[in-house]
Design brief:
The complex is a heterodimer.
Chain A lengths: L1 H27 L8 H23 L4 H4 L4 H28 L4 H5 L8 H21 L8 H26 L6 H29 L4 E9 L3 E8 L12 E5 L10 E4 L12 E6 L3 H9 L5 E8 L12 E6 L3 H14 L5 E7 L8 H8 L4 E7 L9 E2 L4 H7 L8 E6 L1 H13 L7 E5 L4
Parallel strand pairs in A: 7-8, 7-11, 8-9, 9-10, 11-12
Antiparallel strand pairs in A: 1-2, 1-6, 2-5, 3-4, 3-6
Chain B lengths: L2 H26 L2
Classes of the chains: A alpha/beta, B mainly alpha.
């Protein structure tokens, strides 16, 4: 309940900040001449678009107290959705102003004779925003490397915000009162502060917390497990199911941090060791990870995430995983074994074929040491396969779940089709929403 | 958090903001 209250407070703060420029413009009433209704809609859309864009930084800046009530994957999804919605408001800004009589040639053509700093910065801000959103939606189709995209995404977002701020100040209509000036300054400080927080301060804190690679082993399903140990520090304690941002290279600064689930036991690991299992999905997870050798240095920012069995207690657990989404669930099973937790666990594990199921042998071994039943569901089963085939669905779940399943905690981690299917199937099975915890592993 | 809820939150917020813009326009317009 406290978590829900905290969620409402953070959402309320977000809403307050989104509406702040609009509300202040009404209260401080800086315009000497009232605009027409259509012009006012254009101005209002611009204000909302600007504040939404500025707050995009807050949604992905890994502020733990803000992330806790929602989960970082949900905040990431909210960031993605609000980015597109902000684009809609920002595009509405010039459309309504041009309808109300502003000269399109000056505002849409930065090379026209009537163009000035106000029009050029407006054009630049919207043009870069379009590139930013398009490159995010179609990053995989455009075959943009994640690391390259990551840098340009942040850089472009800063250009959008500061071009828009220059535009607002050059127009001057809504910067004439001290209170409006203070509002724009607050947004500028917020954006710069957040960038400093997670691009400079967080890596700086991790600078003297090196991690050394102990082992880099091959797993089933084109995956590798990196076992790391802390160097001259205590490491971190984590809850089973959490993840950390992994960074290769000489420093914790710079390109390419990747959110990876912890795949090891969280109960008193030897020497503070922690393991991450990474599936080969591209350049970094393929080439760079396979090239890592024992003795190499890695950087971690974590632990993060609210997807953990420790967050809610039930009379048992139903774990539903697909593909490499098995890693946090495997961490939970190991931790339960280590704790001597005898509560029943049903693990529904969806995969393509029998040979590519990561941790298959390890899970079978754990079944003998804890109250665990693993139900494999293969989309491409081998000949003579007697187990479940197809995809994890309501039918399969209802065949294996015990009578009291509504009192169990459900934890789901997998690719979008599995997550979408479970978001429909579990309410149909009468599983209370508060007993379902989920995390999408393709959040970035 | 349930991702359907996140989508509902985002769309609900967008609609709320459209209403806020209309109120703003009614308030400040000549």
């Amino acid at each position: 309940m406290i978590l829900i209250a905290r969620g409402i407070i953070w959402y309320g703060l977000y809403l307050f900040l989104v509406l702040l420029p609009l509300g202040t413009a009404v209260i401080s009433d800086p315009t000497r001449v009232s605009p027409s209704f259509v012009t006012a809609i254009g101005i209002g859309a611009g204000f909302i678009g600007f504040s939404l864009m500025s707050l995009e930084f807050a949604l992905i800046s890994r502020i733990e107290p803000a992330a806790e009530p929602f989960g970082e994957d949900s905040l990431q999804l909210f960031h993605n959705l609000m980015g597109v919605i902000a684009l809609g408001f920002i595009l509405a800004h010039p459309i309504f102003l041009i309808i109300s009589g502003y000269p399109a040639s000056c505002w849409l053509n930065p090379f026209s004779s009537c163009a000035n700093i106000a029009t050029i910065t407006a054009f630049l801000s919207i043009f870069i925003l379009l590139v930013l959103i398009a490159s995010s939606i179609w990053r995989k189709k455009l075959r943009l490397r994640y690391e390259v995209w990551y840098v340009f995404h942040g850089l472009f977002a800063l250009i959008v915000i500061f071009s828009a701020l220059i535009h607002i100040f050059r127009i001057g209509r809504y910067t004439s009162t001290p209170i409006m000036k203070a509002v724009w300054l607050l947004f500028a400080v917020l954006v710069v502060g957040l960038v400093i927080w997670y691009k400079i301060w967080t890596p700086l804190r991790n600078w003297n917390k090196k991690w050394e690679v102990v082992e880099n082993r091959v797993e089933r399903g084109d995956a590798r497990t990196l076992v790391l140990k802390p160097v001259d520090h205590e490491g971190f304690s984590f809850s089973p199911g959490q993840f950390a941002w992994l960074k290769t290279g000489k420093t914790p600064f710079g390109l390419g941090q990747h959110p990876i689930s912890i795949s090891s036991n969280s109960e008193d690991p030897p020497d503070g060791q922690v393991a991450f299992t990474i599936k080969d999905l591209g350049d970094w997870s393929g080439k760079e990870i396979s090239a890592i050798k024992p003795g190499d240095t890695l950087w971690l920012d974590g632990p993060h995430g609210v997807f953990s069995m420790d967050r809610q207690q039930g009379m048992g657990y139903v774990l539903i995983g697909g593909g490499i989404g098995i890693t946090p669930l495997y961490s939970m099973c190991q931790t339960m074994t280590e704790r001597g937790d005898g509560r029943p666990v049903f693990l529904f594990y969806g995969g393509q074929d029998w040979e590519s199921l990561t941790f298959r042998e390890e899970l079978d071994e754990l079944s003998g040491r804890m109250n665990l039943q693993v139900i494999y569901v293969l989309s491409d089963p081998p000949e003579g396969w007697a187990g479940e085939s197809g995809y994890v669905n309501e039918d399969i779940l209802s065949r294996y779940l015990p009578k009291q399943y509504r009192r169990f905690i459900f934890l789901i981690c997998g690719p979008p089709p599995l997550m979408d299917a479970m978001e429909e199937a579990l309410p149909d099975l009468g599983v209370p929403r508060e007993k379902v915890l989920s995390e999408r592993f393709d959040m970035v | 958090m349930h991702h359907l809820i996140v989508r509902v939150f985002a769309i609900g917020l967008a609609l709320l903001l459209i209403v806020a813009i209309l109120i703003f326009a009614f308030t400040v317009a000549a």
